[in-house]
Amino acid sequence: MKRIILCLACILICSAGFLFAGKPNRLRKLTEQEKIQMVLANLRQAAQHGEANEFINNFSKDYKDADSKSGNDHAKMKQNAADFFSQYKPIDDKPMLYIYDTKISIGGNIATVDCKMMLMARSIESGGNVNELFADQIDFVKEGEVWKIGNFTKVGKIMNKANNMRKSKKEQEAK
Q1: What is the reported pTM?
Q2: Which segment of the chain is annotated as a signal peptide (predicted)?
Q3: Within a domain: residue 22?
């Protein structure tokens, strides 16, 4: 009887070992950078399927809802941002590009996120079509490239530059 109990205990211990092998990395809490990488991965996938504007509209609405709960408390804003990003799951592991130390402005609210942020977020304000920006091969927007920017005026200029490059390329092809 004791042998049977010992055998069962060994089987249970071994099973638990196999079950949880390699799990610590998957179970650990994600950093804000990793959460934002997930959002970028989702955006990249959405752009490839022509759905990036819809993704951004949803992002903007959801983030505004999360942000409005925090008032002007920047620590709460940062936590709300982290909570918001955590609901997105990674589709691939290649974010389109990174932007460091920037501010995100959605619905008039400004929240500082001290980590990587996406260039795409404000194209919605200028009415730009981000599907083209992210799906096309644009010379100066390279995967993994870091743009050090401090405000969305510069983002707008980058977007305009992308649109102008695209227009001139199409005009040359038409000739």
Answers
A1: 0.26
A2: 1-21
A3: no
Residue 146: CB partners within 8 Å, gap ≥ 6?
A: 97, 98, 99, 100
Domain contains 4 = no
Q: What is the pLDDT of residues 69-100, one digit of tens each?
A: 555 555 555 555 445 444 443 333 333 333 32
Q: Is residue 158 part of a domain?
A: yes
How far is 151 from 83, CA to CA, in rounded Å?
A: 23
Residue pLDDT, tens place only, 28-65: 555 555 555 555 555 555 555 555 455 555 555 555 55
Give me the domain span that covers residue 92: 28-174
Amino acid, single-letter form, for residue 1:
M
Q: Is residue 87 left, alpha or beta, with left meaning phi > 0 and alpha meaning psi from -120 to 50? A: alpha
Query: Could you tell me if residue 18 is inside a domain?
Result: no
The C-alpha atoms of residue 80 and residue 70 are separated, in whole angstroms, by: 8
- If one counts the domains in the chain, the total is 1
